[in-house]
Design a protein that fits this description.
Layout lengths: L9 E3 L21 E4 L32 H8 L2 H21 L3 H9 L5 E6 L6 H4 L7 E6 L13 H12 L4 E7 L3 H8 L8 H6 L3 H10 L5 H20 L3 H8 L4 E8 L4 E7 L14 E7 L1
Parallel strand pairs: 3-4, 3-5, 5-6
Antiparallel strand pairs: 1-2, 6-7, 7-8
Length: about 300
């Protein structure tokens, strides 16, 4: 397989976002946030040129980079895990040749700065890729993915999602935040299956942030089966996350000033439909202003 010299650092950030069309056999593979990892392998005789990290993105990078030989491929296939990376490598090169190089000016601008209009909060589920489903292009959306696409209330304290919200809203000044739930969510199933409020593992410690949605589902749909309650909660948790967004003063202020819109979405990947709605911030709900009702429901099919 292709080798990298040990003196070069390889930064892979949210690799799963780069490969939006992985075949079903890769669905159980999560490749995320390998920060500052350093890979040391034996030098490859086939490598013609090494591009220093400070020159990456410059016009001199062309099609003349390293190619796999039949011998390299044979070696790769000797290791089962390498087959996957060979396929991913081919898809990366397709992206580079058919997208990056053809839109070089656009990507050079992105290399200097980002100014996305959208922030998307979605689930880590391998079947739910907003970039693929919504056709988002590089630079269009600031992306956050976590288990069950939850937004904790500000009272929860520091979280990675809260940090991303702060950066996206305060620094990037995004104009839209879209929280996307989805069908058959294992995180919501774990939430609905909790028998008490004493989380026993990392997943439960995180999904407990959706407890209000769980309680509301159990109160409004006690007659439904467990599976149907999960579907109900998948949508209810999105609405709860929208309400939680408004617990951050700097988000609520921008929403009230008309500088920021917040919307919820629900993607059913079984029949490929999408629901979208938002909150009616002009009036409070029946809970003394702590919860806002929804409005502007749309159904895309």
């Amino acid at each position: 397989m292709m080798a990298w010299c040990s003196r070069y650092r390889v930064r892979w950030i949210n690799l799963n976002r780069c490969f939006t069309s992985l075949t079903p056999k890769w669905n159980d593979v999560m490749l995320e946030s390998f920060e500052d990892s350093q890979i040391t392998l034996a030098p490859s005789k086939e490598r013609k040129e090494v591009i220093p990290s400070d020159e990456i993105g410059s016009p001199r990078i062309t099609h003349q980079q390293t190619r796999f030989t039949g011998k390299d491929l044979a070696k790769a296939k000797g290791d089962g895990s390498s087959d996957m990376f060979d396929e991913i490598r081919q898809r990366f090169l397709e992206f580079k040749n058919n997208k990056f190089l053809k839109e070089a000016a656009h990507f050079q601008n992105l290399a200097r700065a980002q100014s996305p209009k959208f922030m998307v909060i979605a689930c880590v589920d391998s079947r739910v890729c907003p970039t693929n489903v919504l056709g988002l292009q590089p630079g269009e959306a600031f992306m956050v993915r976590n288990v069950a696409n939850l937004v904790p209330a500000i009272e929860f304290g520091t979280s990675e999602t809260g940090a991303a919200l702060e950066f996206a809203v305060k620094a990037l000044e995004v104009e839209n935040i879209l929280v996307i739930g989805h069908s058959r969510c294992a995180g919501i199933e774990a939430l609905m299956g909790m028998q008490d409020s004493n989380p026993r593992n990392y997943v439960e410690r995180w999904v407990i942030n959706g407890k209000a949605a769980k309680l509301r589902t159990e109160a409004t749909a006690p007659h439904l089966s467990f599976d149907q309650q999960c579907i109900h909660c998948e949508k209810e948790s999105v609405t709860q996350s929208l309400n939680n967004l408004l617990t951050y003063p700097w988000i609520k202020e921008r929403v009230e000033e008309g500088l920021l819109s917040i919307s919820g979405g629900y993607y059913d990947f079984a029949d490929c439909t999408f629901e979208k709605w938002t909150l009616d911030i002009e009036r409070s709900g029946a809970t003394g202003g702590k919860r806002y009702p929804t409005k502007d429901h749309q159904f895309w099919c």
